[in-house]
Amino acid sequence: MGVAVAAESEKRAAPRLRYNSPLVQVILIGFVCFCCPGMFNALNSMGGGGQVSKTASNNANTALYATFAVFGVLGGGIYNLLGPRFTLLFGSSFYVLFAGSYLFYNHHQDAKGDAFNITAGALLGMGAGLLWAGQGAIMMSYPPERLKGRYISIFWSIFNLGAMIGGFLPFGLNYNRPNAQSVNDATYIGFMVIMSFGSLLTLALLTPDRVVRDDGSRVTAIRYSNPFTEGWEILKLFLTPKLLLLAPACVASNFFYTYQFNGFNASLFNVRTRGFNGVFYWGAQMLGATVLGFLLDACHPRRKVRGFVGIAVVAVFGMVTWGGGLAKQLEYSRYDLPPELDFKSGPEYAGPFILFVCYGLLDAMYQTLCYWTMGALTDDALALSRYAGFYKGVQSAGAAVAWQLDAHKVRFLVQLLVNWGLLVLSIPLLMLIMKDVKDSCAGDAPLTAESSAKDGETAKETV
């Protein structure tokens, strides 16, 4: 009898594929990001956006992440005002324009092409800020507490499947061009078609009040916000101690892309092999997110302990990976590059390829940990949209700096050491956040500067 009851209870607890279930909505936002940011990542991971000169790409990405930093922070408030469909439709539409600017640059590698590329980058930064704030709110607030890590890993796997499949576009369409210096027009057109589909897919998302968990609870009550409230709540984020402790991790989580794509992938491999490498870089992210997501949900009954285990795994793997990166970086420099490697180069290709895959694994594990940590602070959908905006805004400010470092020809070795240093700095700060994480935040008020201070006093009294 006990076994039957347990089985029935487990059956009721299992997520069901209802259209208005959190799981289906997370899968949908996953496929939106599969088509838009996923294809963008495939494009960017080739280094230089697939162009012979990295300068245009560096400047476009600087403009992108500068506006992303602003609209990332504002994005959570805009999402709370406008809801998911309009916010995400508007935000995702600029990915198509950005890919189109590279198509234009293929034929106008002059001041006009540069201007279009930079303008498209700035507009995409605005759109991406809105898209990722909405994505963060959906991914962190919709799942039940016991499944947050798994839902994050499901999203991350679908999203990176897009980048992985997107990597086949430049590889396949440029396979017979081993000596080409930039990708062909068909590559950019393929990206634009897929991005357009993803933008339209945002219209399939439900509003949060229509999403129902398997236990019958709704994701959030209908609470319409207003511009004054959102502006004040966004300002308060920068006074909240736990979010300020998270800031170095936010910066670190995208800072490394410039080095990995330009200083490593574009510097060591030919065009078709960069696309091939990208397939496995993003495929490794699917594995990294899945493993760490399940670990954060299931390795121990207490959420705080699971968090510390996740931090330890990321710290150890990160130190080993960047250590391997340092050993390889000491073999070349920006002005002393080795002959370009092809995926058919044999044993000399294997080592750099494995290192690039490890970079992808570390990226997914690190960002899964960051999102899981924010999701452990509250279940409130409005608050989590702001947290996601804070995360992406600070992350993008760091990325804008990283792209300019490369644009100003900063040594690859210096870029690598800065990335490694940011990881080392962020680990103890994540541990400080984790020590106050509760096993459940159901019914808790969203995190504020005042509540963080109060939690700190309570923790002292408990000790």
TrEMBL record:
Matching Pfam families: UNC-93 (PF05978)
Taxonomic superkingdom: Eukaryota
Cell compartment(s), UniProt: Membrane
Residues annotated as transmembrane: 21-43, 63-81, 88-105, 117-142, 154-175, 187-206, 243-259, 279-296, 308-329, 349-366, 412-434
GO cellular component: membrane
Keyword Membrane: yes
PANTHER family recorded: ET TRANSLATION PRODUCT-RELATED (PTHR23294), UNC93-LIKE PROTEIN C922.05C (PTHR23294:SF59)
Record protein name field: Major facilitator superfamily (MFS) profile domain-containing protein
Organism: Selaginella moellendorffii
